[in-house]
Amino acid sequence: xxxSLRRRRYSEAGKKAKALRRGETRxxxxxxxxxxxxxxxxxxxxxxxxxxPYIADFACxxxxxxxxxxxxxxxxxxxxxxxxxxxxxxDGYRVLRxxxxxxxxxxxxxxxxxxxxxxxxxx
Length: 123
Hints:
Elements: H1 3-22, H2 26-35, E1 46-51, E2 54-60, E3 65-70, H3 78-90, E4 94-99, H4 100-105, H5 107-122
Parallel strand pairs: 3-4
Antiparallel strand pairs: 1-2, 2-3
């Protein structure tokens, strides 16, 4: 891919990320409340973070951990999500996916799973 096309794609991802931050879902708001301000063992997370041409719901860049929250629309996008996760994994990222319902019903469990993943990646 030539450099100008790459910059244009990344610029488009950055603009889309800003729009997504303004329109975050209820599940994203709940989880962001647990991730922001280095709340999980001092790890810094960004929300709606552009990663190449993709946008991760949450990203801990230092640990290369991405967190995706899946709403109802992700049932239909299962194959594209799996392909996307494969590309990101190939770039060295670990992707954790949680259904929105799990965030609503078991926020503490979601946070603990993230904490455990960060510990595993550090060792």
